[in-house]
Amino acid sequence: MNHIATAQSLKKPLPATLQTELKSLFGLRFSTAHAMREHHGRDESSYDPMLPDGVVFACSTEEVALIVKLCAREGVPVIPYGTGTSLEGHILALQGGITIDLSQMNAMVAVHQEDLTATVQAGVTRKQLNQELKDTGLFFPIDPGADASLGGMAATRASGTNAVRYGTMRENTLALTVVTADGRIIKTGTRAKKSSAGYDLTRLFVGSEGTLGIITEVTVKLYPQPEAISAAICSFGSIGAAVNAVIETIQMGIPVARVEFLDANGVKAINAHDKLNLPEQPLLLFEFHGSEHGVKEQAEAVQAITTEHGALGFEWATKPEDRTRLWTARHNAYFALLKARPGARAISTDCCVPISRLAECILATRADCEDHKLIYSIIGHVGDGNFHVQMLIDPNDHAEIASAEGVNSRMVTRALGMDGTCTGEHGIGLHKMDFLIEEHGEDAIDIMRTLKHALDPGNIMNPGKIVRW
Amino acid sequence: MNHIATAQSLKKPLPATLQTELKSLFGLRFSTAHAMREHHGRDESSYDPMLPDGVVFACSTEEVALIVKLCAREGVPVIPYGTGTSLEGHILALQGGITIDLSQMNAMVAVHQEDLTATVQAGVTRKQLNQELKDTGLFFPIDPGADASLGGMAATRASGTNAVRYGTMRENTLALTVVTADGRIIKTGTRAKKSSAGYDLTRLFVGSEGTLGIITEVTVKLYPQPEAISAAICSFGSIGAAVNAVIETIQMGIPVARVEFLDANGVKAINAHDKLNLPEQPLLLFEFHGSEHGVKEQAEAVQAITTEHGALGFEWATKPEDRTRLWTARHNAYFALLKARPGARAISTDCCVPISRLAECILATRADCEDHKLIYSIIGHVGDGNFHVQMLIDPNDHAEIASAEGVNSRMVTRALGMDGTCTGEHGIGLHKMDFLIEEHGEDAIDIMRTLKHALDPGNIMNPGKIVRW
Questions:
Q1: Which residues of B are less than 8 Å from A436 in CB distance?
Q2: β pairing state of B54-57 and B185-187
């Protein structure tokens, strides 16, 4: 029996007492309607929905703690839900239980402009946060493709296009409020920029995907809006040339704010979706942040490098509206490709390797996609050595699904062989549990399992994800 | 009975069988000589030595694993030792046991110049690492005052003067090799720059001070040596003016590589120790890294800010030898002050607050030192909101010790009240265990204790530190 079937076989009916209690406590904010459960039982992965038994919309950390206490008493699974945009099956209710929707916890708790920090409730999305910050001269850089919630981004250790310069949720989360598996409320840190005070609870919960506790508030670092921003695009005759230009840029220590790669398939998709007419060849998008002069200096250095690697044209996008159009198109790339094949679902995967191995890893993965005649695109946050493969599959075509999963599996093995990781930013969820073992080895996985057992002895926190019980 | 006495009361004699085994396995690399034990039973804190029962010099991860297995079998404490330069009693053998000296594990495992990473054995010191990197064009920025070992720096989540730009061991450690409490060997990560693969074991062990496992190898990020470096110093009529200049520099987002504060007492001490003639007033030392033009731009911006805050003179140190002299003096500050009072010991403490509260926190702490007529200096990595108070005490004068501990305690309470942390970089060790509770609250401490119990069920890994059993 595979992992999913095993976990599902442990599913128990929701106790009637718990249902009555939740109804009396939360009224209309507790729902067992099928549509509501179905909406909360799927993410952006290609898994079929796995429905929770009920959904509660929580409005405060105290409410989350109360729900967890009630569920803990009954041994009922609890799954936190932000925007439902995870990609590896993170929020699927394998064993049923109660999904806690945190989207109504979308208040700004505090912006400390003078300290470059903000504390927000878990349901605040990244776009909302930046909207709230608009008049402060500050911004929050982390931008996964979707307009995800900060709680979800912390829980999955998200990153995005700016990570090459500003880091990921790992580096940018200062503190969390967390509801533990027994319903206690803890704070994992302070607003100090650094600390040597004891075990790093913040980073233990960042990336734990709801399996150790539920994140209800997030304190993040903010950054001054750069004095100057410019963007540039250039195309290449081959993927290798494009990626080698990036490798050299990073090795030279040029502090690019963003450097994104799209293969020809990716460019085609965004051309169609966003009505652009970019050359349908491997493409790099750069963004530079700094002083007027600094931005110019960086762009010139990058232009020299890309030219040396045979870039075809190096076009500037200095006007904010042009930049916005390009980056919006980049952020839409995932959905743009999906539209390219109506009725298809996407198997989306990512890995991350040391930068010197990036071209080799991408090229081999591309050859594998071609060999299997898949409809795919490869796009990536290549400055970090991180890339994504998105494969469109017919959900009824088992052979095609098997081909795509084969490409995924070989890509991970390839990345691990290069001393890379099985996922740079998508996380483990359900889909990469075996790869996690391949990456870490049984002993390290055993340490992870020990942590899970210690912090969630009843196995109620998003059970069946990351490590097998 | 206080914590130390309680822990010491649990001390058991070293089993004779273990002694025989260690002697036969390690020969002269195992010692029970008093001088050897005394050397390993003290750090740079003001605690009296607490001696281990024996010291083993390990040469490999496998040897460390073997020692831990033997000690685990007998329930004997194991304490890792790098350079003995920790400041809060981290390596004191509260309950005796075996200290594993890792200083002979000082091999470079791999330098991946093309990926900006290095893997070293735990005993490699920061200066050795940079010496080894000299011809690569790369460097490792993290620089606690002492020439500490990388293993010790990871174990205490060290930082130093460059952290404001480059981060701490938290941000710069990619992966660790760790020997667990039952003597297994695990790798906590890969060389990928980012990862969402499961629980963040790397950051769980970074800062765990040997209480969860023993770090035997460290993989760190490296950085290209900047194209240009310049340094500048300026003095101020008051501490407030100096610190406010720093606050504004950080709020403006100027990417200074270093900004260090010394109060007049600190300047006096380094003048005497390093034969300098700096004005004996509050002082800021800046360093700028970047392109020729970028460095100039940063320095001009900082000069404008410091002038606005009444800086007296803004002097450049562009020659490498002048810069080195200044930074060597800064790194000697701790020992310089110690020399100012022969026979004295130092109670050295640190805290870290959100930058906007830094001036207020330093000024109140200084007033407290003055009120208690202590011999002290305040120096700090002020760009991070982190500062140190070093108080020289006569080890036989209990009233003086109590005054210094009072200043320390009130400083921590003050920092916590400002949403800061009880230690920015020194760590918890023995000395700050109560402050850790004050900072995190009982429930979060209970989570830390749960982690300790889960990963070290026999309580043999550096017992009695960070959290009470």
A1: 197-198
A2: unpaired
